[in-house]
Amino acid sequence: MTVGTTPTRRGRRVLALTATVVLGVGATAALTGQDNDPQPPPAAVASVAPLPDRPALLPPPSSDAPTPTGAGLQAVVDVALADPAIAGRLAVSVVDALTGEPVYERGATTPLIPASTAKIPTAIAALTALDPGAGLTTQVVTGARPGDVVLVGGGDPTLAGPEVAQGYPEPARLTELATGVRTAVGPTAVTRVVVDDSLFTGERLGPGWRPGYVSGGAVAPVGALMVDGGRVRPDRVARHADPALAAGEALAALLQPGAPVAVERGTAAPGAVVLASVTSPPVPQLVEGMLARSDNDLAEALARHVALAQGRPASFEGAASAVQEVLAPALADVGVAPDAVALVDGSGLSRSNRLQPAALTRLLAAAGTDDRFAPLLTGLPVAGFDGTLERRYRTGGGVPAAGVVRAKTGTLDGVSALAGLVLTADGRLLAFDLTADGVPTGATRGAEAALDRLAAALAACGCP
Hints:
The chain has 464 residues and is of the alpha+beta class. The protein contains eleven helices and twelve strands. Helix 2 packs antiparallel against helix 6, helix 2 (119-129) runs parallel beside helix 7 (296-309) and helix 2 crosses helix 8.
């Protein structure tokens, strides 16, 4: 795999889904509900106590552990197929993470709507193409006349407003930016804030997106400048129709409390003097947050930064082309055609996305051989403990897999998916993708429960 080092097909080193898999309270802010449906922001989610009697760390995978057989897994899958919630179409790909070899596959080369499991290819592309030590920088520069300042977006949707509490990782803060500007301008009153979000181009809503995604709070209109993910308040799902102007108004209120300040669109002049700047956490931590929270805004921003790194326009089209370009060598290295990952957005919101489960499992397995992809593994939610899996695996047949499965969820109308890594009862590490396409209306929760039971069966598997 040319995303990093090229592994051999046998005896591959798998990055620690071991000491890096820390479970318990406070690891990551969680979101509940369906992946790509309106969800409460992190500040609105109540804490859920971790399950008792679970180990703090997963034991290390063993190269000597027996690998399940295809026949053994067939019996497990047959039980899942009998569930009416996923009986329409269930594609399964299970790959040995140590060898990269398939163990069991059913419909694995069928291009399917991935929903939010599309964030895994986005994460791999970001970790490949972007500087791991760099963050996303928001600046304020001098304007065209005295009293003018220009707020220049750097594509950081995690830029936090005054009401966001301290957390980890600590985001860039608008209050810090305002303090720097006040220091730089001295006694000069700021009378106009110009907002420049020209770093990103093209349409603000992705191809195949439903208009209700923005009004329902699943995502903000995509742009290079927003505060609190474009939310009207950090503890509300509602989004601003124009996040950039809202960011300018928020900065103006901090710079000149109670005084009238004009806010309008524009662009920074070449060579404008930087008055202040703030930078997000570095790319690996952004990737972890994107996966754990299934953050659609962050996914779209990272995809556009991949486009910029590849010299393409920071648009939906440019980002899709750039992600595919970055992934092509990696896919070729594991014997998968480039069009096996055909995405039109970075988040998985579009129903025009197509992804072969076999491609995703091979990417997951190969990512375990390169230290650069540790944030992909640590960012995957832990079943029953954090992220989008915090409230799953707590009742019924999924409980045995709590703390053992790390996986990205994916949900759209008619689609329920789960893809990640699982350590079997015998100590073998498997990469898996379970995608149910054609889930009946109203059966989403049932489909999620069925996939959780199937993942739990993989965890319990000897399956000789």
